[in-house]
Every structure is written in C-alpha cells, then in structure tokens.
Amino acid sequence: MRFRLTPRETSFYDMFAASADNIVTGSKLLMELLGADASARAEIADRMRAAEHAGDDATHAIFHQLNSSFITPFDREDIYSLAGSLDDIMDFMEEAVDLVVLYQVEELPKGVEQQIEVLARAAELTAEAMPNLRTMTNLTEYWIEVNRLENQADQIHRKLLAQLFNGKYDAIEVLKLKQIVDVLEEAADAFEHVANTVETIAVKES
C-alpha cells in the first residue's frame, strides 16, 4: 500500500458499494422476469427502470464527488472507469427487460436463464467486493471468478445464437431474440470491465 501524507476522500467507497447493491437489485428483477407471464412483465420493467434511474443517480453522485474532491482514494481515471462500468451493467440489464416487454416476447429461448444466472452471480460477487476497496484485500478471487463467469457467459451466448439460427424461429423473431441475448452478453462484458478495473486499482495501490 502506498504511503500518503494527505487525507483521502472516503465517501467513494460507500457510493461504489451502493451502486453495486443496486445492481444486485437489478439482477433479481431479471430473475423475476424469467418466471413471469406476459401480463406481469410491464410491472417488472417499471421497477427495473426505477432501479436504473437510481443507478444513474449513484453514478452522478460519484462524478460530482470526483469533481469536488482534491484528494481521491485512488486515481481519478480509475474512479471514473469503475463508476461508468457499474452504470453500464445496470443500463444493459434495464435494456434487456425493456426489450422483452416492447417486443412482446411470448417465450424466451432456452439458455437465457443461464445467462441471467451468470449475471446474478456476478452481481453478488461485485457487491461483496466493493467494500474491500477500502483495504484492497480479498479481491484477487473476485476478479478471477468474474472473468471465469464472463467466459461462461460467452459460451452460453454462442449456444443461444446457434439455437436462434437453427430454423426454429422466423426471421423477425430471430432479430428480436438476438438483440435481447446480445444485450445480456454486454452486461456480462461490463461485469468483466468492472473486475478488470478493480484489478488495475489493486495493482497500482499495492
């Protein structure tokens, strides 16, 4: 750990933790979507939209604090990157739910539940990891596991694409479903971006 002569602004830690906790809320709404019939999906989308707005507010609070702080707990560009990647996760999850409702998808293809389970696990790990930024401890297993989960998400995504193009679905349905599974894959990528940023921060602070 680098020795510092000046005090650091510590509220960032709480704000990152709050942002990650909100992502867990989003992942639970995704799980809820899986078991919901079409009539219940609009209400789930409303709650997801509210969670996404809360995520935006958390991100803006971090940026405001960043702009008003002279001393930060770690490099400014890393704070910006971490906050932005956390925000991206929430945006992608909200987009996926919104698309399901807008496209009036009757049934999601088999395998989407695996995508969402991976995202839910990554959300839990991320929420557990954020408080550890204070001490820069117990983080290595976090970023290793999230990277493993992202690789798993890639495999699930490829299988889903193969399933969509096997002739079972008509062309319009393929376009709709592909956009949904692609957005869920982008959420998995965003989790990896968060983990990679945390690793970068930990290496710099060691």
Described by its quaternary structure, the protein is single chain
**Tally of discrete structural domains:** 1
- The helix/strand class is mainly alpha
The level-1 CATH class: Mainly Alpha
Arithmetic mean of pLDDT: 93
Report the CATH topology name.
Methane Monooxygenase Hydroxylase, Chain G, domain 1
User: Rough shape?
Assistant: globular
Elements, N to C (H/E): HHHHHH
Radius of gyration: 18 Å
Please count the helical segments: 6
The percentage helix is over 70%
Q: How large a portion of the residues is in β-strands, by DSSP E?
A: under 5%
List the helices and strands and how they pair.
Layout: H1 11-34, H2 38-68, H3 76-102, H4 112-129, H5 140-164, H6 171-205
Helix pairs in contact: 1-2, 1-3, 1-4, 2-3, 3-6, 4-5, 4-6, 5-6
Pfam families: PhoU_div
Organism: Streptomyces klenkii
Family: Belongs to the UPF0111 family.
